[in-house]
Amino acid sequence: MNLSYWEIKSWLTNVDFTIIGSGIVGLNCALQLRENHPKADILILEKGILPQGASTKNAGFACFGSLSELISDLESHSEQEVFSLVKQRVDGLKLLRETLGDKAIDYQQLGGYELFTKVDKALYEECLSQKDEINDLLKPIFNAEVFSFKNNQFGFKNVQDTFGFNQFEGQIDTGKMMAALLQKAHQKDIKIINSTEVLSFSEDANSVKIKTHHFEFSTQKLLIATNGFASKLIDENVKPARAQVLITEPIENLDIKGTFHLDKGYYYFRNIDNRILFGGGRNLDFKTEETSEFGQTQLVKNKLEELLKTTILPKKDVKIDHYWSGIMGVGNQKKPIVKQLSNNVFCGVRLGGMGVAIGSIIGKDLADLVLI
Ligand SMILES: Cc1cc2nc3c(=O)[nH]c(=O)nc-3n(C[C@H](O)[C@H](O)[C@H](O)COP(=O)(O)OP(=O)(O)OC[C@H]3O[C@@H](n4cnc5c(N)ncnc54)[C@H](O)[C@@H]3O)c2cc1C
After folding, report:
1. What is the DSSP string of 122-135?
2. CA angle centred on 347, ends 344 and 350, rounded to 5°
3. What's the whole-model pTM score?
4. 178: CA distance to ligand 1 center in Å?
5. Do 107 and 202 belong to one domain?
6. CA dihedral 239, 242, 243, 245 (to 10 degrees)
7. Residue 191: which domain range?
8. pLDDT digits (tens, 9 = 90+) for 301-355
9. Is residue 209 part of a domain?
10. Total domain count for the chain?
């Protein structure tokens, strides 16, 4: 692209910090850099016309782990590690709510439920028997019992009679959250260039040269917040994981309120605007879903539609309005990767399925790594 003198001077000269990715991590990183460096020139490069990964695609659960998920995590992590993971998520949600305010993100603490399928009796019984132990582990964070069991008041079918209930789980409006973050970034004089994919970068002693498909320029520090797309630019243990979602048309007298996890969290649904947003099914074909290409598969679509009709809304004739997908960044550990990669390059990636909760903190931690 043949840029003008003005474009080069105002956008691409004397750039102190360049962030790749305008998801929840990239935007929070930029806001914290602004706090730390009030006069710095901060630029975000984003490949999508809007943020184009997970942050504008997710289900908006403000959650920190269901009972079965925490029990399963205890098989591969120590008690201290699981405690720290939950604490980070709780602290992250607090930071998100403080940064933007509950009204701007439409935060509602309607509670979170975990449903166990009829065939998952063993898991159901394990959760019942370990509930007190998990509540004791989390007591120092909440000063209250987090998990209890509730009766099926919603008329769901093919599930065990009672559900795990988490009184502290909430939900947000994902679109409002991202719009508010983008607005805040603009207010703080952070420049964002959309539709610009970073293809590669190279480093010398004092700067990093960045190549996009439109232009090349230099920056003092580079911060990579590309999560599920990270392996295209850096060599870290993070893989893409696609998640498919559907939303129904508005449903009259919908009394399902809250966030719901089904089948060990592989499926999740919630109410929004009198509709049901329903996603999951990655476990049906992990290999195919290990991709950074957006899209749907018939296998996952069919299963989501079947569960919607047979389990979630068995008595209603509902129509599906829309499907979409998003790309997460996952690895063999739940802990995100926040680190300095070289003199002038840093990354904050691998947010898994918890980026609403931890994205603000990871963005802040990434910015705080940089010393100038
Ligand atoms: C369907 C779905 C449901 C989810 N539900 C929940 C939930 O309910 N609760 C929860 O806590 N979490 C949920 N998550 C996870 C959460 O959305 C993510 O963990 C979080 O959004 C990650 O934020 P991020 O900023 O790290 O990544 P992203 O939002 O993916 O941001 C990365 C950005 O980098 C850009 N980018 C990538 N490569 C380049 C490049 N080379 N050049 C320029 N730009 C580039 C991308 O376009 C993207 O905008 C869900 C995710 C999905 C997909």
Report:
1. HHHHHHHHHHHHHH
2. 170
3. 0.97
4. 11
5. no
6. 160
7. 5-56+176-237+333-369
8. 999 999 999 999 998 899 999 999 999 999 988 889 999 999 999 999 999 999 9
9. yes
10. 2
